[in-house]
Amino acid sequence: MTNTNTVQLFERAAGFADRKAVFASEGDFTYQQLLDASGRVGATLLDGAADLEETRVAFLVPPGFDYVATQWGIWRAGGIAVPLAVSHPRPELEYTITDSDAAIVVAHPQYEERLRPVTEDLNRKFILTTDLLATPPTELPTIDSSRRAMILYTSGTTGKPKGVVSTHDNIQAQVTALISAWGWRQDDHILHVLPLHHTHGIINVLTCALWSGAVCEMLPGFKADDVWQRFIDSDLTLFMAVPTIYNRLIAAWEAASPEEKEAMAEACAKFRLMVSGSAALPVSVLEQWEGISGQRLLERYGMTEIGMALSNPLDGERVPGFVGAPLPAVDIRLVDDQGQVVTEDSIPGEIQVKGPNVFMEYWRRPEATAEAFQDGWFQTGDTALRENGIYRILGRNSVDIIKTGGYKVSALEIEETLRTHPNIQECAVVGVPDDKWGESVCVAIVFKHDRELTLEELRDWAKERLAPYKVPSHMQPVEDLPRNAMGKVTKPEVKKLFSPPADS
Ligand code: MCA
Ligand code: AMP
User: Fold this and answer.
1) What is the rounded distance in angstroms from the CA atom of residue 232 to the CA atom of residue 263?
2) Which of 201, 442, 477, 479 is within CB 3.0–4.6 Å of 498 for a Cys-Cys bond?
3) Ligand 1 center to 497 CA (angstroms)
4) Contact call for residues 53 and 26 (beta carbons, < 8 A)
5) CATH number, domain at 423?
6) Which ligand gives the minimal distance to the CA of 397?
7) What CATH code is carried by the domain that includes residue 101?
8) How far from 286 is each of 222, 242, 243, 325, CA to CA, in Å?
9) Which of 145, 174, 193 lies at the terminal end of a domain, its last residue?
10) pLDDT tens across 338-369, in order?
11) Residues with CB under 6 A from ligand 1
12) What mean pLDDT do residues 83-102 have?
């Protein structure tokens, strides 16, 4: 791992002082304002201490200037940033705060009512962003870049989400690979519409922009009509999103008048790059988008544990259905079922990754961390093949990992929660191909005698316990779950119950 010793993001920001950094609903802010505000945040968090010494600070702040000032303030005070998701219900927030063992919880006033009671019950220090920004800046510690910087929660094949710990060096490596591959520069201006508790929104969009001295224009969330309006009205050069978002933009374009369509196409012409990732981009979507916008989407492949690993080129051919070649400083190998490294073209193998971009550990899970590596290579669980140096993703090793709307969710985690419903005897969750979401979460349920639920009742109950993207979209009541001779539920058979999806 490279050790550059200091966190360059802030040193670089001082060099862009008077340039605009963030455009948000609260206003426009320069890099100097970001440095000043994050200095105040850091001072409040330190509360007289010299260094937070990797204290976890969880924060629930909507996309905008306060989010960035809080994140930077945590980092500058020597803390570990644990972003909470604005869409999460109480049990998910509680899990993240508890598992990360966050001593401090920060909330924007709009989430005070939601978060203060949780924080008080858990006996953590609660601070509002308005109070964070009120303290005058003090001297901040020098942070060695090999230190832990961030914990992001990601679903895996076992139960509850795990905290992925990245150091400042990891973040720097992930960012600089993208800066060089995608030619980020000071005069870039990106529209940010992604959630800010995952790598795509935090690293690829926000941190790359701020590393470059560019403008990050942040919307409160994704709404297709608002995005098209920003495309038309703003001087954007870059856009990055998941396939579901491109689908939604296509649907909005289809519903527009001929004059509006003309303005939309004209707006797209000014972009220098549009990127898709987090889930497989169907070739039909790539083609439709190219027809509408004149932009061939650059598809890339990544994972929370590694940042981005493979990317189509900025210049040169972007082959539909392929995710391109390894990014700078990222080593990739494919390993077959027998554990042999694949050297020939067109033979499938698991993608394994090595490099300074690869995360440090799963938070307080040394066994899971050890299991995730083979001879120092991180095992992604994704299968791919290589043709002429470029890679095509074929799928995942585990049927229990579902990608929906760009979010990774665990079938087992959802099953565990649903089984706590008093009417549910047994259940099996699967991901089923879906035009809108990539995959949709489907559940087969054996109800306790005479205690059936409607899909709506099930969803209402589940929404109080699970993130909205984990809540099943389709449900199939069954007498028994399909099982093999060993008594294990056969997920491929469960999937068949949903083709075409059955809403009951
Ligand atoms: C939301 N809903 C869903 C889903 N999500 N229904 C089925 N499947 C889903 N996945 C439902 C909600 O329950 C709600 O239902 C209604 O849709 C609206 O919810 P809302 O939260 O407003 O959804 P949305 O705003 O329309 O969300 C669509 C979205 C969002 C904008 C595409 O899913 C999104 O931002 N996705 C990006 C995720 C992302 O950034 N992933 C990167 C992970 P009701 O109306 O009944 O209440 S990082 C990663 O993967 C790696 C590193 C990488 O390679 O990037
Ligand atoms: P996450 O754990 O949320 O970071 O999601 C990472 C997973 O998203 C990867 O392991 C892949 O399964 C999937 N993924 C990311 N980018 C792509 C892509 N371009 N094509 C197919 N799958 C992708």
Assistant:
1) 7
2) 442
3) 24
4) no
5) 3.30.300.30
6) 2
7) 3.40.50.980
8) 20, 12, 9, 19
9) 145
10) 999 999 999 999 999 999 999 999 999 999 99
11) 87, 194-195, 198-201, 221-222, 242, 244-245, 277-278, 302-304, 404-408, 437, 440, 468-469, 471, 473
12) 98
